[in-house]
Design brief:
2 domains, alpha/beta, 6-stranded mixed beta sheet, 30% helix, 254 residues
């Protein structure tokens, strides 16, 4: 951000989040900060419609979003872009909370940081750690992550949505960044997998990331984990230890 904002005021907060997420907190922030205008976007492409004059008076707030903001948009934001990352600086990257659950660490957290061109590299503004020792499932971890992120947003909002310069913490991001490729590798089950390892994978990655689910390929046929889904077994399936995998459904015209 190289824009001189000495003569202008913060007027707009551009929320980048899913519709479901933004509906949870935007009305609350609107009431708390009546002098600010809140505008929502779901996808990075949605940001292209905003004029430079609007962006110059704007701060972008990314909340649990997997969208990557283009550098030309970041450079036009007069008051920068802040991301609430579902993870600690030890876990930058894709689906951090699922990798943390797989690793079995005792504590996790939410990180607020300035957004840069490279994902999860910007200066850290705030960090909140909490225990995950009691978490037993992916669903429980997902809900806890959302709840803690919302709590952090409400707690930090007066700082994050202020025109006052924000102090940053002397904390560095880990150089080990989780990626979509790493996620696919974790979900690729082999026939010699142990029961304990498969249980760890199902616990952490069982519902997938919207792109990939735990799967195993046998004789050229890919089977995906059902993970307790109540579906009719109207397609071939196999059992790996005590987990069911059904033949992956394909889409498209034949």
């Amino acid at each position: 951000m190289n824009i001189d904002t000495s003569s202008i005021s913060l007027k707009n907060i551009l929320i980048l989040s899913s519709r479901e997420m933004s509906s949870k907190f935007t009305p609350i922030l609107t009431r708390k900060f009546p002098k600010l205008d809140f505008v929502s976007a779901v996808f990075a492409d949605d940001l292209k419609v905003f004029e430079p004059a609007f962006l110059k008076q704007t701060r972008l707030l990314s909340f649990l979003s997997n969208q990557i903001v283009p550098i030309d948009i970041l450079n036009q934001l007069g008051f920068g872009a802040i991301n609430l990352h579902p993870g600690t600086p030890r876990y930058p990257g894709w689906q951090a909370w699922q990798f943390a659950l797989y690793d079995g660490i005792p504590d996790f957290g939410i990180t607020a940081h300035w957004m840069e061109e490279k994902v999860d590299t910007g200066k850290i503004i705030a960090l909140h750690n909490y225990s995950i020792r009691h978490v037993k499932s992916e669903q429980e971890m997902a809900q806890l992550t959302i709840n803690m992120a919302l709590n952090c947003l409400y707690s930090w909002s007066s700082r994050l949505l202020s025109q006052t310069p924000l102090e940053t913490l002397d904390i560095e991001w880990s150089s080990h960044k989780t990626t979509k490729s790493m996620y696919r590798q974790k979900c690729a089950i082999t026939t010699d997998i142990t029961n304990s390892e498969l249980t760890k994978i199902v616990r952490a990655f069982g519902n997938g990331d919207g792109l990939t689910k735990p799967n195993i390929t046998i004789d050229g046929i890919c089977y995906e984990l059902l993970n307790g889904q109540n579906v009719a077994l109207d397609r071939p399936f196999i059992k790996v230890h005590h987990y069911l995998f059904a033949q992956k459904q394909t889409t498209g015209l034949s």
